């Protein structure tokens, strides 16, 4: 996502290279480039203009810091402004009431049903809540089935009333059902249309009035660019929603919607959908997204993702094994499965500063570990625990068994022994960097 915009902005900063300080004259070209980059990313013209005007004021008003180069300073100013444009701070959803009622709105195909399932899953698995999903898309039986399938997959109950064509009645009954059954969050999925129409707006307004939701979320496909912004405006005028969910940010979106919606409707983006799978959902943090757009990586999200998967007991066990130098291939397999749990490998790696660009165009997927795992699975338990057993004959057997070749097996064994050495040094608190530079 945002690859193009990231590249363009980076180039614009380069124009300031070699300049001693930012002046009205030397910054003009950079600002023009930034504006063009934003317009090409489908950012609304007025927003792009205001953005560069604000950046200019800030850039010229900066005290000259000898330690910071103008290019770097510009990156920081643009980063802060981008974050500000997307809402500044993180905005959570209101879940205090029991049950908390969340109403979905948006056009057909925007990803409402998928998001309803993702949100239920997130609230259940990360917040220990007991959600109830409600199917109010009464016109499309397929949509009701889709929600049922999702519910089964994530083990969340789905409230439906076959044959009832009145979404207001269904939504009200669902809330009663939630109260009676201990569901503390009710997520109401509604019908969308291909375009904004009066009947749809009347219907969702009636549901809103009847159930008085704690949170109305507007779901929109980020690939639709400026249209997304216009639709957001129309829905907001009618519903006065609380937050925006941008879906399909994993696709080839230019980013215009993410950058313009907040400024146009003055409502925060709260979540972003990053794939079709049920766990492909991120809470939206404007500052982290700004870092990502500028290709600075998103180290905070990465650490949080890692922490979610982090098992303290396991870490202590590993620490002991490392100190005793008994870290083996079974531990290695566990580590791989932990990394895989963090999500799509390319996304995870893309959060590491500087990696986003390096990964562009590279074909990395969750299969990246397949060969490594196959090789380890082809080892006997004794070999996994004691890799020094693996002589030439055994290597050949392992290569055959895993469908790889002997070079690949050799490479893995070498990497493993180097990793083990390195991890041992770290666990003993030695300064690895110094050691490595001494080795060169
Ligand atoms: P609804 O009509 O608003 O309920 O939309 P759906 O939930 O049925 O989604 C429409 C299509 O978009 C489906 O094929 C979804 O799998 C897909 N979709 C939804 N969210 C995302 C996302 O974040 N990324 C991707 N790649 N696809 C998504």
TrEMBL record:
Keywords associated with the record: Cytoplasm, GTP-binding, Hydrolase, Nucleotide-binding, Ribonucleoprotein, RNA-binding, Signal recognition particle
Protein family (similarity comment): Belongs to the GTP-binding SRP family. SRP54 subfamily.
Pfam family, one: SRP54
Summary of the function given for this chain in its UniProt record: Involved in targeting and insertion of nascent membrane proteins into the cytoplasmic membrane. Binds to the hydrophobic signal sequence of the ribosome-nascent chain (RNC) as it emerges from the ribosomes. The SRP-RNC complex is then targeted to the cytoplasmic membrane where it interacts with the SRP receptor FtsY.
PROSITE patterns according to UniProt: SRP54
Protein name stated in the entry: Signal recognition particle protein
Source organism: Draconibacterium sediminis
Family annotation (CDD domains): SRP_G
């Amino acid at each position: 996502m945002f690859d193009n915009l990231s590249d363009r902005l980076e180039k614009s900063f380069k124009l300031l290279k070699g300049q001693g300080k930012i002046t009205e004259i030397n910054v003009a070209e950079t600002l023009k480039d930034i504006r063009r980059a934003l317009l090409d990313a489908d950012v609304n013209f007025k927003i792009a203009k205001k953005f560069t005007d604000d950046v200019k004021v800030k850039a010229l008003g900066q005290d000259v810091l000898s330690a910071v180069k103008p290019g770097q300073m510009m990156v920081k100013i643009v980063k802060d402004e981008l974050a500000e444009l997307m809402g500044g701070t993180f905005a959570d959803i209101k879940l205090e009431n029991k049950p908390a009622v969340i109403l979905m709105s948006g056009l057909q195909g925007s990803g409402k049903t998928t998001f309803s399932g993702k949100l239920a899953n997130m609230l259940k698995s990360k917040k220990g809540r007991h959600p109830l999903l409600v199917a109010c898309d009464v016109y499309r039986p397929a949509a009701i089935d889709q929600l049922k399938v999702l519910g089964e997959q994530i083990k969340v109950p789905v409230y439906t009333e076959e044959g009832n064509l009145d979404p207001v009645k269904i939504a009200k009954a669902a809330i009663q059902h939630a109260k009676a059954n201990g569901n503390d969050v009710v997520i109401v999925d509604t019908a969308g249309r291909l375009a904004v129409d009066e009947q749809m707006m009347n219907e969702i307004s009636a549901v809103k009035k009847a159930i008085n939701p704690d949170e109305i979320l507007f779901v929109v496909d980020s690939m639709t660019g400026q249209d997304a912004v216009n639709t957001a405006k129309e829905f907001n005028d009618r519903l006065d929603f609380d937050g925006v969910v941008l879906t399909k940010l994993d696709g080839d979106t230019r980013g215009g919607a993410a950058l313009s919606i907040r400024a146009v409707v003055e409502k925060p983006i709260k979540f972003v959908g990053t794939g079709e799978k049920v766990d492909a959902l991120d809470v939206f943090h404007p500052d982290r997204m700004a870092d990502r757009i500028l290709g600075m990586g998103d180290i905070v999200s990465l650490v949080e993702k890692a922490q979610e998967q982090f098992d303290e007991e396991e870490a202590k066990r590993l620490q002991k094994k490392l100190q005793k130098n008994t870290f083996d291939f079974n531990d290695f397999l566990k580590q791989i499965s932990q990394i895989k749990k963090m999500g799509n490998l390319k996304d995870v790696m893309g959060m590491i500063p500087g990696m986003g660009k390096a990964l562009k165009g590279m074909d990395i997927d969750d299969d990246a570990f397949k060969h490594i795992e196959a090789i380890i699975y082809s080892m006997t338990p004794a070999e996994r625990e004691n890799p020094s057993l693996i002589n030439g004959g055994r290597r050949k057997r392992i290569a055959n068994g895993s469908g790889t070749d002997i070079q690949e097996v050799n490479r893995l064994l070498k990497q493993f022994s180097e990793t083990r050495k390195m991890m041992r040094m770290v666990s003993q608190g030695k300064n690895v960097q110094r050691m490595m530079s001494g080795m060169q």
